[in-house]
Amino acid sequence: MTQPSPTRPVTVGPVTLGGPAFTVIAGPCAIESAEQFSLIAEKTRSLGAVMLRGGIFKLRTSPDSFQGLGNNGLAVAREIRDRVGMPVVSEVVDPRQIEVMCEAVDMFQVGTRNMYNYALLKELGLAGKPVLLKRGFSARLEEWMLAAEYILRGGNQDVVLCERGIRTFEVATRNTLDLSAVALIKQTFELPVLVDPSHATGLRSLIEPMSLAAAAAGADGLLLEVHNDPAAALSDSEQSLDFEDFSGLMDRLKKLLGGLNRPLHILP
Ligand code: PEP
Ligand code: MN
After folding, report:
1. Distance from first CA to last CA of the chain, Å, rounded?
2. Which residues in 221-238 are b (16+ Cβ under 10 Å) and which e?
């Protein structure tokens, strides 16, 4: 069997991604209000998440869909992060947002649509903050690693990859989760890699099985959409877990990690 390549950990405040412990990042697709984000932060933290996700500037396929709270969401992210004590990752969609977002988020997410946005990647190389680089939905592994290289060359070594599914001929799921890419990255690259089963499958019932499979394939952690009331979510309602689903997933994930001899990262 090929020996795994040693992963170089990336720290985000009190959290280490790509270290010995498995990391769960959870939160809504989009921050909708301070109440919503606060509720989700507290609950997911109590169930074992160590970082929060939440879109502030959303890139939606339709211009009629909810576009995120925009600048109003920045203050919400900062307030909840400071009060609950969880670092926040949120998507940056335009290099002009980097400066204002720096104050409110702890890690920049590059979404699937922007993996090929080299102007953005170059700026993030200079941003002095960790970056979560999602795989472009049509990107080959090599193209994805070269996108990471744009950020690394700028002098920013804190890059974490996230497999979020690719577009194939299959339409039964939103995308096709490429777990073999995750196992291959673990064997050949030193960057930590997370899995986002929410956008990969688009189906709530598949989030838990694919989360467990991701852990078994060697992923360093998960990026999960969790909502206090998925039916009322302003985006990605069908793939968001409610608190009960998330709690069950975390229970079974802990058991699996025990068997894999990998601890779950927890906040003090
Ligand atoms: C997200 O995680 O909020 C998101 C939009 O994901 P992706 O870019 O992978 O579609
Ligand atoms: Mn989403």
Report:
1. 36
2. bbbbbbbbebeebbbbee
The fold adopted by the segment(s) 23-258 is TIM Barrel (3.20.20)
Q: What is the tens place of the pLDDT at every residue in 34-56?
A: 999 999 999 999 999 999 999 99
Ligand 1 atom nearest to 112, measured from its CA? 8
| Nearest ligand 1 atom, CA 225 | 2
Whether 29 is in the pocket of ligand 1, judged by its Cβ within 6 Å, is yes
Give 1 Cα–ligand 1 centroid separation in angstroms: 33
pLDDT of residue 20: 97
Q: Which among 120, 121, 195 has a CA at the least distance from the CA of 159?
A: 121
**CB contact at 8 A, 127 and 98:** yes
pLDDT over threshold 70, residue 1: no
Question: With the C-alpha atoms ordered 126, 132, 138, 144, is the resulting torsion angle positive or negative?
Answer: positive
164 in contact with ligand 1, CB cutoff 6 A: yes
Decide whether any atom of ligand 1 lies within 6 Å of the 225 Cβ.
Answer: no
Residues 246 and 244: their CA atoms lie apart, in Å, by: 5
Residue located nearest, by CA, to atom 5 of ligand 1: 111
Query: Tell me, what's the pLDDT at 65?
Result: 94
- The mean pLDDT of 28-33, rounded to a whole number, is 98
The predicted pLDDT at position 4 comes to 76
CA of 179 from ligand 2 middle (Å) equals 20
Contact 223, 53 (CB under 8 A): yes
